[in-house]
Amino acid sequence: QVQVAESGGGLVQAGGSLRLSCAASGRAIINYVGWFRQAPGKEREFVARISWTGDSTYYRDSVKGRFTISRDNAKNTVFLQMNSLKPEDTAVYYCAAEVSGSSEFDYWGQGTQVTVSS
Fold first, then answer.
1. What would the pLDDT profile of 27-38 be if each residue is shown by its tens digit?
2. Does the structure show a pLDDT above 90 at 46?
3. If 111 and its partner were Cys, which of 13, 31, 73, 92 is the partner (CB 3.0–4.6 Å)?
């Protein structure tokens, strides 16, 4: 079992920045931690993911160059630094973990709201 919990959402003007945090804990071996988002009326979509070792990252095209995913080994925390935010980035952001033996993100947080005003 793994528990993940997001924090750091809020309201920001377009062009601003926010940093989301995802604290992971539990006994399972984590392979990847990913960030996803869901805007009102839309399906949830992948944003970025990082390997638990921190040596592999991947982003959706629309956030490349603006968002950076990173990991603090000592704190078992994954961050999503979001710069140059746009109104279309407004969504509930979820953190999820993929554990050893699985090929899917099975463990999800409750989500944190990010609102970007124009």
1. 989 999 999 999
2. yes
3. 92
| Distance in angstroms (rounded) separating the CA atoms of residues 47 and 49 | 7
pLDDT in tens, 77-102: 999 999 999 999 999 999 999 998 88
Read off the tokens for 69.
């995913």
d(CA 30, CA 27): 9
Alpha carbons 35 and 69: distance in angstroms, whole number: 9
pLDDT in the model for residue 73: 81
**Widest CA span of the chain, in angstroms?**
43
* Side chain identity, residue 62: S
Please report the pLDDT score of residue 89 as a whole number: 98
Token pair of 111 as six digits: 């989500």
| DSSP letter assigned to residue 87 | G
Q: Are 45 and 36 in contact (CB under 8 A)?
A: yes
74 CB-contact burial (10 Å; exposed 0-12 / middle 13-18 / buried 19+): exposed
Backbone angles phi, psi at 32, to 5 degrees: -140, 150
